[in-house]
Amino acid sequence: MSKKIFIDGREITFEGNKTVLQIARENGIYIPSLCYHPKLGPASKCRVCVVEVEGMRGLQTACSLMPADGMKVQTDTPRVIEARKMVVNLLLSNGNHNCISCEANGDCELQEAAYKHGIEVPAFLVERSEKRDDSAAFIMRDPNKCIQCGRCIEGCNSMVVNEVLDFGYRGGHTTVVCDKNSPMGESTCVQCGECVQLCPVGALVEKKGMGKARSWETKKVRTTCPYCGVGCQQELHVKGDEIIRIKGVDGAQPNQGHLCVKGRYGYDFIYSKERLTSPLIKDADGKFREAGWDEALDLVANKFKQILQESGPDAIAGVSCARSINEDSYNMQKLFRSVIGTNNIDHCART
Fold this sequence. Notes:
Blueprint: E1 3-7, E2 10-14, H1 20-26, E3 50-53, E4 60-61, E5 71-74, H2 78-93, H3 109-116, E6 139-141, H4 151-159, E7 165-168, E8 175-178, H5 194-198, E9 204-206, E10 219-224, E11 233-239, E12 242-248, H6 261-265, E13 280-282, E14 288-290, H7 293-311, E15 318-320, H8 326-340, E16 345-347
Parallel strand pairs: 1-5, 15-16
Antiparallel strand pairs: 1-2, 3-4, 3-5, 6-9, 7-8, 10-11, 11-12, 13-14
C-alpha cells in the first residue's frame, strides 16, 4: 500500500518500510549522514541527518524516522542548518582532518557535509594527537581522523562477524580498539577490509593505494572477482593502466558489497612478469612458442578428435576450475557429456 510524505513541500509517494532518509535519497533530496550506511541500517549517532517534522517536538534523525502517511518534513530550515553546522564543526575540530594530505580527499562524507554547509575552517580547536597504527598488512588506521560513527564496528561485528573492533575507554578518551586495544596487525583481524569500505572519512585506508591517486584521478570499472565461482562484483579504481584499489559494489548481487581478503587486495598477480598473456604451443623440439588463440584452440580441437578416433570418448577427461563461474562449469560438463560423449568430468572444489 502506497503512502505519501511531504519533504520541503514536495509530495512524494512511497511503498514499504522506508526511513525519511531513504525516501529523500531515492528522490534526489540531500540529507547528510555519517553514521548511517544502507548495509548497516539506522544508527542515530552522529545527529547530522536531523530534520524538522511538523507536529513533533525537537529535531528528528532522518536515518531512523519512519514516516507516517501525510508527514511533513523540512530539511533546510534555519534550525536544522544550525544544528548540522554545529555537529560538523565539532567533528572537524576534534580530529586531524587535513583534507589537502588526506587519502580520502574527494571521497569523504564529512568533507562533503562541510562543503554543503559552507564550513571552510572549524569553529573550534581540540588538540588530539594519537599515533597512527600501521602494523597491519593492508590497512592503515589513523585515530586522529576517526569521528566515532561506529560503522566499522557494526560492519565487523554484524556483517562479517569477525568481532575484532569495538569502542574502548570513555568520554573524551573513547576510541575504536582492536580486541583488547592491540595493534591491528597483532589482533585477530583477518584484513577483509570491510571496515575500510564502510569508513566515511580517512580514518581507515588501504595501504596499497596510499599516495598513488586522488579519488577524482581514478576511473571506476565494474567487473567480476576472478578468485572463485561465486561471482562477487568489484569496482576497480584505475589510474592509467594501474589498479589503485578495489571496492565491493554495494547492493550488487551476490556479495552485497562484501569482498574477501583475496578479492579486495590480491590483484598484484596481473602485473607479474611470469603471467602468461598468450597461448603457448610446444614445437617438435620441445620448446614453447607463443601462438594466437585460433591456432591454439584448433590444435586442442584436433587433438580431441584424434583421441576420440583412436581410443574413444572415455580416453578424455576434464577438470573444471573453481575460479570458473557456474555457467562456465555447466558449459564444460555439457561439452564433455553431450559432444565428446563421456562422463569423465570433475571439479576441483568437489569434496
